[in-house]
Amino acid sequence: MHTTNSSDVDAVAIVGVDAGGADLAEDLATAGYEIYVTTPGTDEPDATATALEAAVRAGDVVVETAAAREREPDVLARIDSLASPETILAVAPDETIDEGVPAAHRLERVVELRLTRPLVDADLVEIGRSERTADETVATMEALFADAAIPTVTVDRPLRASVLERLLLPVWLEAARQVETGTEPAAIDAAIRRLGIPAGPCERLDAAGIDAVVERVETLRDRGLELSIPSILQELLEEGRHGVTAGEGFHTYDGDDRVAIPRERRYEVDPLAVLAPAIDAATRLLEADVVTEDAVDDAVRSAGWPRGLLEIADEYGLDRVCEVLAAGDREPAPLLASMVAEGTTGLDAGEGFHQWDYEATTFGTVRYERRECLAVVTLDRPDVLNALDRESWLGLRRALERADADEAVRATILRGSGRAFSAGDDIAEMAGWADDDEATAFFQEVLGPTVEELRTHSKPTIGVVDGIATGGGCELIVVCDVAVATPDSELGLPEALIGAIPPIAPAYGLPAIGKKDFMELAFTGDRLSGTEAEERGLVNYVVDEGQIEDVARELALATTAASPESVAAIKGVWNRMEDELLEPIFADCLETVATTLQSEAGQEGMTAFLEGRNPAWSRRHDG
Question: Which end of the chain has a smaller Cβ tally under 10 Å, C or N?
Fold first, then answer.
């Protein structure tokens, strides 16, 4: 039997059987409700009238489908005349409730019910209410569908289009506009798929039928929605490329309704550029007090999205959403702009469309944040390119220890502020060391333990390079488990240019770099671009500047699919290998770098660096 908290509902009458009505009847019957189905206009007039009267009188809830109204335009008036005053009427969404229901006395017991959505493939029922609809009526309908495990979204007044159409059509149309400007459909679809969304917008346009999409957009424009049709859609129609059913649309289909989207193209397009118009549309629905934030997110989840649209917006940052909209000559919704002005920008602020678990503190020159399950550690000396002085090394160690000890943290992101990750150790500080003992103490008690804390960190570590990462900065990136960089970033190991050696890379960097690449970098001090660094294995991916933080976050979140125990075990196995094979080499490197820095060559090298000249031994003529 059904378990709804509305004990008044035992039977449901469905008037008019279309695809949505048939599915609803099956789901409610499975949940234990008595179901009465009748379709006007399919039998002899007397038989139809008898069937309709029997169904309506039996139902505690009567559902009128669009199919019923198409067959008999005045069917709702007949239902109203037959139903008891306590019966809930769920009417088709062709008209507003106030216009569609002939008996004003019944409006408290009337909701609009959208069972199917043109174009959009999703398991969702949308419940619309008017100002007169009683809260009890809405609660009863929500409980009815919950009892049958049917997801619902409640809209506080009927809309001219379904919530899902209002959210997804802007994504599809924006994708088409980007194709118009030269972006390839496969790149757009790959970018959207990387968020876990099951199909890209060009795929969805093809599946829905480009002709059907154009027709629907025209209908919605006639109803007052501000939607424009990209010219490429008309061009595709003129060429007969309607989508899957025609064998060709944005993609080509060879007897299959699916197309292979190359995963390796997922970073070519910024997904936010495609999603921003939908985020803006959702914000305008919130402004109108039509839906809640949860309703928006539930709606897109019903279409297979792993996270809600507004959750995704918060992850990107609402300030970035506004920037993307402005770049496309769109005025952000007033609510969106005001949220940014107030600093409620999303995940990185602890509040946006949703509340987020957030904390922030500083350890000397290092900023520490926990954004939900991710720790974000930022080297914060931008005026000196985040050069690593004693305070920075100690602060980094404390931040890593904080993340490691926090069970809520599942991955740690390491980044730099300003135009560098880190330019390496603070040469001015090192040049001021009094003797070998002070140099040795720094490497043994400060730098070494911090590197070990990063290396043995029990959570996945993701390094982010957007600018300069040289010397110790580059070596920290090598120690991270995963790293990303922008194409124009610069990575190098220039320690020998000041008479020192790279103390970390000869040990913990060799598995990633290899002898020949290491020797070239260490001997010449040359800097690799981010693109070259990817080719040589120093970083995993190169992405454009606008996406670097997003990709780092996505990679960090992707690691949470693995159990924390498995992650710790995997890292433990790797660390034990390094303990046995590489840790002695690292200890030797720390001793050697302290000695070389205090040597005559080291002193000359640091002095020359600080004076902006070549050291005495250099025969190099750059430029």
Answer: C
What are the pLDDT digits (tens) for 470-484? Answer: 999 999 999 999 999
Last residue of a domain, one of 349, 366, 399: 349
Q: Which of 68, 106, 20, 26 shows the shortest CA–CA distance to 12?
A: 26
Report which of residues 224 and 507 the model is more confident about.
507
Report pLDDT digits (tens) over 59-68.
999 998 876 6
Q: Which residues are catalytic?
A: 475, 495
Share of the chain above pLDDT 90, in %: 72
Domain CATH for 529: 3.90.226.10
User: Across all residues in the chain, what is the average pLDDT?
Assistant: 91
DSSP state string for 135-187: HHHHHHHHHHHHHTT--EEEESS--SS-HHHHHHHHHHHHHHHHHHTT--HHH
Fill in the DSSP letter of residue 352: S
Give the separation between CA 37 and CA 149, rounded to whole angstroms: 20
Domain membership of residue 236 as a residue range: 164-349
Residue 298 and residue 364 share a domain: no
Same domain, 143 and 104: yes
For 387-390, which contacts have Cβ atoms below 8 Å and span 24 or more sequence positions? 387/422, 387/423, 387/424, 387/425, 387/426, 387/427, 388/422, 388/424, 388/425, 388/426, 388/472, 388/473, 389/365, 389/425, 389/426, 389/429, 390/426, 390/429, 390/442, 390/446
Q: Are residues 129 and 41 in the same domain?
A: yes
Q: Are residues 48 and 139 in the same domain?
A: yes
Same domain as 572, residue 491: yes
Residues 190-216 pLDDT 10s: 999 999 999 999 999 999 999 999 999
Q: Worst-scoring range by mean pLDDT, 327-336, 381-390, 432-441? A: 432-441
Q: Which region among 51-60, 307-316, 472-481 has the lowest average model confidence (pLDDT)?
A: 51-60
Domain contains 555: no
Q: Which residue, 289, 368, 279, is CA-closest to 315?
A: 279
Q: Check residue 119 and give left, alpha or beta (phi > 0: left; psi -120 to 50: alpha).
A: left
Question: Is residue 1 scored above 50 in pLDDT?
Answer: no
Same domain, 66 and 173: no
Residue 1 falls inside a structural domain: no
b/e code 122-136 from CB counts within 10 Å (16+ = b): bebbbbbbbebbeee
pLDDT tens-digit series, residues 155-196: 987 677 889 999 999 999 999 999 999 999 999 999 999 999
3-state secondary structure of 604: helix
Domain boundary among 108, 126, 158: 158
Tell me which residue has tokens 């590197």: 451
CA atoms lying within 13 Å on the CB side of residue 281: 24
Q: How many CB atoms lie within 10 A of CB 529?
A: 16
Mean pLDDT of 234-248: 95
C-alpha 289/C-alpha 276 separation (Å) is 20
Asked whether residue 370 falls in the same domain as residue 515, the answer is yes
Question: What's the CATH code of the domain at 181?
Answer: 1.10.1040.50
H and E: helices and strands count for the chain: 28, 18
Q: Which residue has the higher pLDDT, 604 or 360?
A: 360
| CATH number of 129's domain | 3.40.50.720
The number of distinct structural domains making up the chain is: 3
pTM of the model: 0.89
